[in-house]
Amino acid sequence: MAVRCLLNESRGALQRWLPALGGRDGANFGRRRGVVNCSRPARRASGETRTSSPTFGFLFDIDGVLLRGQYVIPAAKKAFQKLTDSTGQFCVPVAFVTNAGNCSRDGKAEELSNALGFKISPERVILCHSPLRLFHKFHDKCMLVSGQGPVAQNARDLGFRRIVTTEDVRKAFPLLDMVDQSRRPKELPPPTTDFPTIEGVILFGEPIRWETCLQLIIDVLLSNGNPGAELSAVPYPHLPVLACNMDLLWMAEAKMPRFGHGTFLMCLESIYKKMTGKELKYEALIGKPSTVTYRYAEHIIKQQMESRGWVSPLRHLYAVGDNPMADVYGANLYNRYLQAHAEVNVTAMTADTQGNECPELKKDSAVSLSCMPSCQSILVCTGVYNHHGDVPADCNVSMTETIFHGHRDFHFDPSLVEASHIVRDVDDAVELVFQKENWKRE
Protein backbone atom coordinates (compact mmCIF):
# COMPACT_ATOMS: atom_id res chain seq x y z
CA MET A 1 0.00 0.00 0.00
CA ALA A 2 2.84 2.39 0.86
CA VAL A 3 4.51 1.83 -2.50
CA ARG A 4 1.20 2.34 -4.32
CA CYS A 5 0.76 5.65 -2.52
CA LEU A 6 4.28 6.68 -3.45
CA LEU A 7 3.72 5.77 -7.08
CA ASN A 8 0.55 7.82 -7.08
CA GLU A 9 2.48 10.74 -5.59
CA SER A 10 5.16 10.32 -8.27
CA ARG A 11 2.57 10.27 -11.04
CA GLY A 12 1.01 13.38 -9.59
CA ALA A 13 4.34 15.17 -9.52
CA LEU A 14 5.06 14.19 -13.11
CA GLN A 15 1.64 15.28 -14.31
CA ARG A 16 2.04 18.51 -12.39
CA TRP A 17 5.40 19.57 -13.76
CA LEU A 18 6.08 17.73 -17.02
CA PRO A 19 3.15 18.00 -19.45
CA ALA A 20 3.43 21.58 -20.74
CA LEU A 21 7.11 21.97 -21.43
CA GLY A 22 7.89 24.43 -24.19
CA GLY A 23 11.12 25.55 -25.79
CA ARG A 24 14.42 23.75 -26.13
CA ASP A 25 14.48 22.41 -22.57
CA GLY A 26 11.06 20.83 -22.80
CA ALA A 27 10.77 19.70 -26.40
CA ASN A 28 8.81 16.44 -26.47
CA PHE A 29 9.54 15.92 -22.76
CA GLY A 30 5.96 15.80 -21.63
CA ARG A 31 4.45 13.87 -24.54
CA ARG A 32 1.54 11.71 -23.54
CA ARG A 33 2.29 8.00 -23.50
CA GLY A 34 -1.19 6.71 -24.30
CA VAL A 35 -0.11 5.55 -27.77
CA VAL A 36 2.92 3.28 -27.75
CA ASN A 37 5.08 2.45 -30.73
CA CYS A 38 5.32 -1.33 -30.67
CA SER A 39 7.31 -1.69 -33.86
CA ARG A 40 9.94 -4.41 -33.62
CA PRO A 41 13.54 -3.88 -34.76
CA ALA A 42 14.50 -5.30 -38.10
CA ARG A 43 15.10 -9.05 -38.07
CA ARG A 44 18.77 -9.88 -37.57
CA ALA A 45 20.64 -11.49 -40.41
CA SER A 46 22.43 -14.76 -39.78
CA GLY A 47 25.54 -14.26 -37.69
CA GLU A 48 24.62 -10.76 -36.50
CA THR A 49 24.83 -10.17 -32.74
CA ARG A 50 22.63 -7.06 -32.49
CA THR A 51 20.55 -4.48 -34.30
CA SER A 52 22.19 -1.51 -36.04
CA SER A 53 21.37 0.87 -33.20
CA PRO A 54 21.22 0.37 -29.43
CA THR A 55 17.90 -0.13 -27.69
CA PHE A 56 19.33 0.51 -24.21
CA GLY A 57 21.10 3.25 -22.30
CA PHE A 58 23.23 3.73 -19.19
CA LEU A 59 22.55 6.04 -16.26
CA PHE A 60 25.80 6.27 -14.29
CA ASP A 61 26.12 7.65 -10.80
CA ILE A 62 29.46 9.42 -10.26
CA ASP A 63 30.63 9.44 -6.62
CA GLY A 64 31.41 5.87 -5.53
CA VAL A 65 30.97 4.52 -9.07
CA LEU A 66 33.42 6.51 -11.21
CA LEU A 67 35.18 8.68 -8.63
CA ARG A 68 36.09 8.62 -4.96
CA GLY A 69 36.50 12.29 -4.15
CA GLN A 70 39.17 13.58 -6.54
CA TYR A 71 40.41 10.13 -7.52
CA VAL A 72 39.13 8.05 -10.40
CA ILE A 73 38.18 4.43 -9.67
CA PRO A 74 40.42 2.32 -11.98
CA ALA A 75 37.49 0.25 -13.27
CA ALA A 76 35.88 3.42 -14.63
CA LYS A 77 38.54 3.95 -17.29
CA LYS A 78 38.29 0.32 -18.36
CA ALA A 79 34.53 0.61 -18.62
CA PHE A 80 34.57 3.75 -20.72
CA GLN A 81 37.12 2.33 -23.12
CA LYS A 82 34.42 -0.24 -23.92
CA LEU A 83 31.70 2.39 -24.17
CA THR A 84 33.51 4.65 -26.65
CA ASP A 85 34.89 4.25 -30.15
CA SER A 86 38.26 5.34 -31.54
CA THR A 87 37.05 8.93 -31.93
CA GLY A 88 35.95 9.16 -28.29
CA GLN A 89 32.23 9.02 -29.12
CA PHE A 90 29.92 6.83 -27.10
CA CYS A 91 28.66 3.77 -28.95
CA VAL A 92 25.55 3.64 -26.74
CA PRO A 93 23.56 6.43 -25.05
CA VAL A 94 25.03 7.44 -21.67
CA ALA A 95 23.97 9.96 -19.04
CA PHE A 96 25.62 10.79 -15.74
CA VAL A 97 22.99 11.13 -13.01
CA THR A 98 24.44 12.46 -9.77
CA ASN A 99 23.00 13.92 -6.61
CA ALA A 100 25.80 16.47 -6.58
CA GLY A 101 24.32 19.96 -6.54
CA ASN A 102 27.01 22.29 -5.23
CA CYS A 103 28.56 22.72 -8.66
CA SER A 104 27.63 23.67 -12.20
CA ARG A 105 26.87 21.22 -14.97
CA ASP A 106 29.85 22.52 -16.96
CA GLY A 107 32.11 22.13 -13.95
CA LYS A 108 31.03 18.55 -13.30
CA ALA A 109 31.47 17.68 -17.00
CA GLU A 110 34.99 19.13 -16.93
CA GLU A 111 35.80 17.19 -13.75
CA LEU A 112 34.62 13.96 -15.38
CA SER A 113 36.50 14.69 -18.60
CA ASN A 114 39.76 15.21 -16.73
CA ALA A 115 39.26 12.08 -14.63
CA LEU A 116 38.23 9.70 -17.41
CA GLY A 117 40.56 11.04 -20.07
CA PHE A 118 38.08 12.05 -22.78
CA LYS A 119 35.54 14.77 -23.40
CA ILE A 120 32.23 14.55 -21.54
CA SER A 121 29.58 16.93 -22.85
CA PRO A 122 27.69 18.95 -20.21
CA GLU A 123 24.45 17.86 -21.91
CA ARG A 124 25.11 14.33 -20.60
CA VAL A 125 25.37 15.48 -16.98
CA ILE A 126 22.23 15.51 -14.81
CA LEU A 127 22.79 17.16 -11.44
CA CYS A 128 20.29 16.79 -8.63
CA HIS A 129 18.86 20.22 -9.44
CA SER A 130 18.72 19.84 -13.24
CA PRO A 131 14.94 19.13 -13.34
CA LEU A 132 14.32 22.51 -11.69
CA ARG A 133 14.52 24.04 -15.16
CA LEU A 134 11.03 22.57 -15.63
CA PHE A 135 9.53 24.33 -12.61
CA HIS A 136 8.46 27.44 -14.51
CA LYS A 137 5.93 28.37 -11.84
CA PHE A 138 8.74 29.57 -9.57
CA HIS A 139 11.10 31.14 -12.10
CA ASP A 140 9.73 34.65 -11.57
CA LYS A 141 9.35 34.42 -7.80
CA CYS A 142 11.92 35.73 -5.31
CA MET A 143 13.66 32.55 -4.14
CA LEU A 144 16.08 32.02 -1.26
CA VAL A 145 18.83 29.60 -2.35
CA SER A 146 20.94 27.53 0.02
CA GLY A 147 24.02 25.41 -0.61
CA GLN A 148 27.62 26.01 -1.54
CA GLY A 149 29.48 26.66 -4.74
CA PRO A 150 27.87 28.78 -7.47
CA VAL A 151 24.31 28.44 -6.14
CA ALA A 152 23.17 31.84 -7.44
CA GLN A 153 24.58 31.16 -10.91
CA ASN A 154 23.10 27.65 -10.90
CA ALA A 155 19.69 29.12 -10.08
CA ARG A 156 20.00 31.62 -12.93
CA ASP A 157 21.09 28.90 -15.34
CA LEU A 158 17.96 26.93 -14.40
CA GLY A 159 15.71 29.88 -15.22
CA PHE A 160 15.22 31.58 -11.84
CA ARG A 161 15.36 35.36 -12.20
CA ARG A 162 15.00 36.76 -8.66
CA ILE A 163 17.52 35.19 -6.32
CA VAL A 164 18.50 35.81 -2.70
CA THR A 165 21.28 33.82 -1.01
CA THR A 166 21.61 32.99 2.68
CA GLU A 167 24.64 35.28 2.71
CA ASP A 168 22.45 38.12 1.42
CA VAL A 169 20.06 37.51 4.32
CA ARG A 170 22.90 37.38 6.83
CA LYS A 171 24.35 40.68 5.65
CA ALA A 172 20.96 42.40 5.59
CA PHE A 173 19.99 41.07 9.05
CA PRO A 174 23.26 40.47 10.95
CA LEU A 175 21.48 40.04 14.28
CA LEU A 176 19.97 36.78 13.06
CA ASP A 177 23.32 34.93 12.85
CA MET A 178 24.38 34.59 16.49
CA VAL A 179 26.07 31.20 16.97
CA ASP A 180 29.58 32.22 15.93
CA GLN A 181 30.49 34.97 18.39
CA SER A 182 33.24 36.29 16.13
CA ARG A 183 30.61 37.23 13.52
CA ARG A 184 28.24 39.01 15.88
CA PRO A 185 28.00 42.76 15.15
CA LYS A 186 29.86 44.95 17.64
CA GLU A 187 27.27 47.71 17.33
CA LEU A 188 23.55 47.62 16.71
CA PRO A 189 23.10 47.94 12.93
CA PRO A 190 20.42 50.17 11.39
CA PRO A 191 17.23 48.34 10.39
CA THR A 192 16.97 47.00 6.84
CA THR A 193 13.90 48.34 5.05
CA ASP A 194 14.31 47.54 1.36
CA PHE A 195 14.94 43.80 1.46
CA PRO A 196 12.65 41.87 -0.95
CA THR A 197 9.97 39.54 0.36
CA ILE A 198 11.09 35.95 -0.16
CA GLU A 199 8.47 33.76 -1.87
CA GLY A 200 10.11 30.33 -1.75
CA VAL A 201 13.20 28.35 -0.74
CA ILE A 202 15.49 26.18 -2.89
CA LEU A 203 17.86 23.82 -1.07
CA PHE A 204 20.55 22.93 -3.61
CA GLY A 205 22.83 20.95 -1.31
CA GLU A 206 24.56 20.87 2.03
CA PRO A 207 25.90 24.33 2.99
CA ILE A 208 29.20 25.06 4.70
CA ARG A 209 27.91 26.78 7.85
CA TRP A 210 25.03 24.56 8.88
CA GLU A 211 24.15 26.60 11.97
CA THR A 212 23.79 29.81 9.95
CA CYS A 213 21.73 28.25 7.17
CA LEU A 214 19.47 26.30 9.52
CA GLN A 215 18.78 29.46 11.52
CA LEU A 216 18.13 31.71 8.52
CA ILE A 217 15.95 29.24 6.62
CA ILE A 218 13.82 28.72 9.74
CA ASP A 219 13.62 32.52 10.15
CA VAL A 220 12.41 32.91 6.56
CA LEU A 221 9.76 30.20 6.98
CA LEU A 222 8.51 31.52 10.33
CA SER A 223 8.36 35.12 9.09
CA ASN A 224 6.59 34.25 5.83
CA GLY A 225 9.52 35.53 3.79
CA ASN A 226 10.26 38.67 5.84
CA PRO A 227 13.16 37.68 8.12
CA GLY A 228 13.32 41.11 9.76
CA ALA A 229 9.69 40.96 10.86
CA GLU A 230 8.09 39.50 13.96
CA LEU A 231 4.84 37.62 13.43
CA SER A 232 2.30 36.84 16.11
CA ALA A 233 1.47 33.40 14.66
CA VAL A 234 3.33 30.75 12.70
CA PRO A 235 2.25 30.87 9.03
CA TYR A 236 1.11 27.47 7.84
CA PRO A 237 1.22 26.18 5.21
CA HIS A 238 4.65 27.77 5.01
CA LEU A 239 6.45 29.09 1.95
CA PRO A 240 7.16 26.55 -0.84
CA VAL A 241 10.36 24.55 -0.25
CA LEU A 242 12.09 22.73 -3.12
CA ALA A 243 14.87 20.39 -2.00
CA CYS A 244 17.51 18.73 -4.16
CA ASN A 245 19.58 15.70 -3.13
CA MET A 246 18.18 13.58 -0.31
CA ASP A 247 21.32 11.46 0.24
CA LEU A 248 21.88 10.85 3.93
CA LEU A 249 25.44 9.70 3.15
CA TRP A 250 27.91 9.83 0.29
CA MET A 251 31.33 8.34 -0.36
CA ALA A 252 34.56 10.31 -0.85
CA GLU A 253 38.20 9.46 -0.03
CA ALA A 254 37.45 8.58 3.60
CA LYS A 255 36.94 4.95 4.58
CA MET A 256 33.51 5.71 6.01
CA PRO A 257 30.61 7.51 4.29
CA ARG A 258 30.19 11.27 4.91
CA PHE A 259 27.09 13.29 5.76
CA GLY A 260 25.08 14.33 2.72
CA HIS A 261 22.34 16.87 2.12
CA GLY A 262 19.79 14.40 3.44
CA THR A 263 21.37 14.80 6.87
CA PHE A 264 20.98 18.58 6.62
CA LEU A 265 17.32 18.13 5.62
CA MET A 266 16.77 15.92 8.68
CA CYS A 267 18.13 18.69 10.89
CA LEU A 268 15.91 21.31 9.23
CA GLU A 269 12.79 19.13 9.48
CA SER A 270 13.45 18.30 13.13
CA ILE A 271 14.07 21.92 14.14
CA TYR A 272 10.97 23.15 12.31
CA LYS A 273 8.75 20.52 13.94
CA LYS A 274 10.27 21.09 17.38
CA MET A 275 9.64 24.83 17.12
CA THR A 276 6.19 24.77 15.51
CA GLY A 277 4.71 21.35 16.24
CA LYS A 278 4.03 21.02 12.50
CA GLU A 279 5.65 19.04 9.69
CA LEU A 280 7.94 20.75 7.22
CA LYS A 281 6.36 20.20 3.81
CA TYR A 282 8.16 20.08 0.46
CA GLU A 283 6.76 21.44 -2.77
CA ALA A 284 9.12 19.01 -4.51
CA LEU A 285 11.94 16.61 -3.68
CA ILE A 286 14.35 16.38 -6.61
CA GLY A 287 17.35 14.19 -7.32
CA LYS A 288 17.63 10.46 -6.80
CA PRO A 289 15.45 8.59 -5.89
CA SER A 290 12.82 11.03 -7.24
CA THR A 291 10.82 9.68 -10.18
CA VAL A 292 10.96 13.13 -11.79
CA THR A 293 14.76 12.86 -12.00
CA TYR A 294 14.65 9.47 -13.75
CA ARG A 295 11.99 10.69 -16.16
CA TYR A 296 14.25 13.61 -16.99
CA ALA A 297 17.18 11.21 -17.47
CA GLU A 298 15.11 9.08 -19.84
CA HIS A 299 14.41 12.21 -21.86
CA ILE A 300 18.15 12.97 -22.09
CA ILE A 301 18.88 9.41 -23.26
CA LYS A 302 16.19 9.64 -25.96
CA GLN A 303 17.58 13.00 -27.10
CA GLN A 304 20.98 11.37 -27.59
CA MET A 305 19.46 8.55 -29.60
CA GLU A 306 17.65 11.02 -31.86
CA SER A 307 20.74 13.18 -32.37
CA ARG A 308 22.83 10.14 -33.36
CA GLY A 309 20.18 8.78 -35.71
CA TRP A 310 19.61 5.67 -33.62
CA VAL A 311 16.11 4.77 -34.70
CA SER A 312 15.41 1.68 -32.58
CA PRO A 313 13.09 2.40 -29.63
CA LEU A 314 14.53 2.62 -26.14
CA ARG A 315 13.67 -0.59 -24.30
CA HIS A 316 15.99 -0.78 -21.30
CA LEU A 317 17.65 1.70 -18.96
CA TYR A 318 20.44 0.43 -16.73
CA ALA A 319 21.07 2.59 -13.66
CA VAL A 320 24.51 1.92 -12.16
CA GLY A 321 25.08 3.21 -8.63
CA ASP A 322 26.67 2.55 -5.25
CA ASN A 323 23.92 3.68 -2.88
CA PRO A 324 21.02 1.26 -2.29
CA MET A 325 18.89 4.01 -0.75
CA ALA A 326 19.28 6.43 -3.65
CA ASP A 327 20.47 4.67 -6.82
CA VAL A 328 18.79 1.28 -6.38
CA TYR A 329 15.65 2.59 -4.71
CA GLY A 330 15.22 5.28 -7.38
CA ALA A 331 15.76 2.96 -10.34
CA ASN A 332 13.40 0.33 -8.93
CA LEU A 333 10.75 2.93 -8.12
CA TYR A 334 10.98 4.33 -11.64
CA ASN A 335 10.73 0.83 -13.08
CA ARG A 336 7.50 0.35 -11.15
CA TYR A 337 6.24 3.64 -12.51
CA LEU A 338 7.06 2.51 -16.08
CA GLN A 339 5.39 -0.87 -15.63
CA ALA A 340 2.30 0.70 -14.09
CA HIS A 341 2.14 3.02 -17.09
CA ALA A 342 2.52 0.03 -19.42
CA GLU A 343 -0.41 -1.80 -17.84
CA VAL A 344 -2.62 1.27 -18.29
CA ASN A 345 -1.60 1.52 -21.92
CA VAL A 346 -2.36 -2.16 -22.55
CA THR A 347 -5.93 -1.62 -21.39
CA ALA A 348 -6.33 1.63 -23.31
CA MET A 349 -5.04 0.23 -26.60
CA THR A 350 -6.92 -3.04 -26.56
CA ALA A 351 -10.14 -1.22 -25.67
CA ASP A 352 -9.81 0.74 -28.91
CA THR A 353 -11.36 -1.58 -31.48
CA GLN A 354 -10.05 0.61 -34.29
CA GLY A 355 -6.46 0.37 -33.16
CA ASN A 356 -4.08 -2.08 -34.79
CA GLU A 357 -1.16 -1.85 -32.39
CA CYS A 358 -0.15 -4.84 -30.27
CA PRO A 359 -3.21 -6.91 -31.32
CA GLU A 360 -1.87 -9.96 -29.50
CA LEU A 361 -2.47 -8.29 -26.13
CA LYS A 362 -5.79 -9.04 -24.49
CA LYS A 363 -7.84 -6.39 -22.81
CA ASP A 364 -6.97 -5.77 -19.15
CA SER A 365 -3.84 -7.86 -19.52
CA ALA A 366 -1.52 -7.38 -16.56
CA VAL A 367 1.67 -7.97 -18.54
CA SER A 368 4.11 -5.17 -19.29
CA LEU A 369 4.55 -4.03 -22.84
CA SER A 370 7.85 -5.19 -24.31
CA CYS A 371 8.08 -1.92 -26.20
CA MET A 372 7.90 0.16 -23.02
CA PRO A 373 11.23 1.05 -21.39
CA SER A 374 12.26 -0.73 -18.24
CA CYS A 375 14.79 0.47 -15.69
CA GLN A 376 17.10 -2.06 -14.05
CA SER A 377 19.28 -1.26 -11.05
CA ILE A 378 22.93 -2.35 -10.90
CA LEU A 379 24.71 -1.96 -7.56
CA VAL A 380 28.51 -1.71 -7.44
CA CYS A 381 30.70 -2.37 -4.40
CA THR A 382 33.09 0.59 -4.74
CA GLY A 383 31.19 3.23 -2.77
CA VAL A 384 28.54 3.45 -0.07
CA TYR A 385 27.62 -0.21 -0.50
CA ASN A 386 30.54 -2.50 0.22
CA HIS A 387 29.73 -6.19 0.42
CA HIS A 388 32.44 -7.79 2.55
CA GLY A 389 33.72 -10.82 0.71
CA ASP A 390 34.07 -12.00 -2.86
CA VAL A 391 31.10 -10.79 -4.89
CA PRO A 392 30.51 -12.71 -8.11
CA ALA A 393 29.21 -10.77 -11.06
CA ASP A 394 25.42 -10.61 -10.82
CA CYS A 395 24.94 -12.14 -7.40
CA ASN A 396 21.79 -11.80 -5.36
CA VAL A 397 22.47 -10.32 -1.94
CA SER A 398 19.44 -9.61 0.21
CA MET A 399 19.05 -6.03 1.41
CA THR A 400 15.84 -6.62 3.34
CA GLU A 401 17.44 -6.19 6.77
CA THR A 402 19.12 -2.89 5.93
CA ILE A 403 18.24 0.22 7.95
CA PHE A 404 16.37 2.65 5.72
CA HIS A 405 18.52 5.71 5.02
CA GLY A 406 16.05 7.21 2.58
CA HIS A 407 14.19 10.45 3.06
CA ARG A 408 11.26 10.75 5.45
CA ASP A 409 8.76 11.24 2.61
CA PHE A 410 9.81 8.08 0.72
CA HIS A 411 8.05 5.10 2.28
CA PHE A 412 10.29 2.11 2.86
CA ASP A 413 9.68 -1.05 0.90
CA PRO A 414 12.52 -3.61 1.27
CA SER A 415 12.05 -4.81 -2.30
CA LEU A 416 12.93 -1.35 -3.63
CA VAL A 417 16.47 -1.60 -2.27
CA GLU A 418 16.99 -5.04 -3.81
CA ALA A 419 19.25 -4.41 -6.80
CA SER A 420 18.49 -6.21 -10.04
CA HIS A 421 22.20 -7.07 -10.18
CA ILE A 422 25.17 -6.64 -7.83
CA VAL A 423 28.66 -6.51 -9.33
CA ARG A 424 32.13 -5.56 -8.15
CA ASP A 425 32.57 -2.34 -10.09
CA VAL A 426 31.41 -0.27 -13.05
CA ASP A 427 33.50 -2.27 -15.53
CA ASP A 428 31.69 -5.45 -14.49
CA ALA A 429 28.40 -3.54 -14.80
CA VAL A 430 29.14 -2.62 -18.43
CA GLU A 431 30.19 -6.19 -19.24
CA LEU A 432 27.00 -7.51 -17.67
CA VAL A 433 24.78 -5.19 -19.72
CA PHE A 434 26.61 -5.95 -22.96
CA GLN A 435 26.07 -9.66 -22.33
CA LYS A 436 22.39 -9.18 -21.52
CA GLU A 437 21.88 -7.06 -24.64
CA ASN A 438 24.07 -9.28 -26.83
CA TRP A 439 25.93 -6.13 -27.78
CA LYS A 440 29.34 -5.94 -29.38
CA ARG A 441 31.01 -2.71 -30.35
CA GLU A 442 31.48 -2.29 -34.08
UniProtKB/TrEMBL annotation:
**One Pfam family this chain carries?**
Hydrolase_6
* SUPFAM superfamilies per UniProt: HAD-like
Superkingdom per UniProt:
Eukaryota
Q: Which InterPro entries match?
A: CDP-alcohol_PTase-I, HAD-like_sf, HAD-SF_hydro_IIA, HAD-SF_hydro_IIA_CECR5, HAD_sf
Task: Give start-end ranges for the coiled-coil region(s).
Answer: none
Protein name in the entry: Cat eye syndrome critical region protein 5
What's the source species for this entry? Gekko japonicus
* Gene this protein is translated from: CECR5
